[in-house]
Amino acid sequence: MPRHRTIPSNRSRAIALIAAGAFSVVGAASATAATWNREPARAPAGAAQAAAVIARPAIAARVPRSQATPQASPQAVSLAVRAFQIRATQATHAAARWQDDRLRAQRRVEEARARARAAALAAQSQAAQSQAAQSQAAQSQAGQPQQASTPAAHPAASGSPEQIAEAMLGSFGWSASQFSCLYPLWEHESGWSVTAANPDGAYGIPQALPGAKMASAGANWQTNAATQIRWGLEYIKGMYGSPCGAWGHEQATGWY
Question: How many other β-carbons are positioned within 10 Å of the β-carbon of residue 226?
Answer without folding.
Answer: 22
